[in-house]
Design a protein that fits this description.
It is a single chain. This protein is mainly alpha-helical. Helix content is 77%, strand content 0%. The protein has 23 helices and no strands. Helix 5 crosses helix 7.
Length: 426
Amino acid sequence: MAVAVFVAVYVLIATEWVHRVAAALGGAVVMLLIGATDAEHAFFSEDAGIDWNVIFLLLGMMLIVAVLKRTGIFEYVAIWAARRARGRPYRLMVLLVVTTGFLSAWLDNVTTVLLIAPVTILVCRRLGLPVVPYLIAEVMACNIGGAATLIGDPPNIMIGSRANLSFNDFLLHMTPVVIVLMIVFILMSRVMFRKAFTHDPERAASVMELDPREAIKDVRLLVISGVVILAVMTCFVLHTWLHLEPSVVAVSGGLLLLGVSRLDPGDVVKDVEWETLAFFTGLFVMVGAMVRIGVIGDLGEAAAEATGDNLLATAMTLVFGSVVPSAIIDNIPFVASVSPIVSEIVASAGGTEEAGTLWWAFALGADLGGNATIIASSANVVVIGIAERSGHPISFWQFSRYGLVVTAVTATVAAAYVWLRYFALA
């Protein structure tokens, strides 16, 4: 029954017969009513319930962005980016994609898209460009770039903790392949989004005449916001040493900035993406129910058993086998369920370097699967919400027709990297 409910909700989201928030919350209610989960698991379980760390991380960063947008800094960056690209659409996309990919390696993916998406919408409007292709390209670059470091994506943090992998381990083993994947994605973007690259010389010329400094509306608030954001980002990078969850850092920063900004709190909170938070809540309850009844764990065990003692086959299975479930559900609960299985396989193989390749295969598959559908990663859901509120809705299939292609190509490149690494070690 739980699987049937999950599939039904997924169909409703994919077909857009009902709004995705109503579908997710309705599915969560049904999961509770049929006993697939209960209040204790849904609201208090770390593995099979609402991930409050994600919810409050989102809320804190949304508050920061809501205050920051009142300074005019997004308009400033939009004009700067348009001038830097000299109004050329593809050059602009490359600039935004590279910036997003770089930031996502050092910040949480959600934080990155919350900062970049408003800038993208503004610069596209300035140049008369379609907003949707640029937002889709950015969030995909965000998911790829986030795989580069330990702190770039929540699944990486979970894998690092389970496998005892350091920040430098991720830099050494994941960053090189992510750079290659980013180059591949930039080249793919030139073909996939070619219809969006219509150059308007008049608009470009008018943008080149603008002075970015005139966009700043409140210098005092900008300075205060800059100090708070710098402190928040520093704490994000050092959160493992400070023993502070990113959610605590984000919500503390958001509330602090709201308090010292002298703005009307009621006006600021109107800009929080409440629909996105509600969607996540429903999704977490549904996926948590699937974790609790063992569906996700069974899928992982079946994949492991299918490959037996063949480490290379297991590595390939982890790359492609992680992509599929990560495309259907958020990759965080999937990694939480399957990482113990990977740990057992690595340990049974003697913990050799060849066996250690399984962790990189697993991380790449889980991260890259986040590009397949709008609900496959937290960053996707946030961007969809921002796009809808700004009057540029992105449908499930509009996203997936690009996402499935990007996922297939990048997963193949990742599998080739894992294959070469395995044989180099062997």
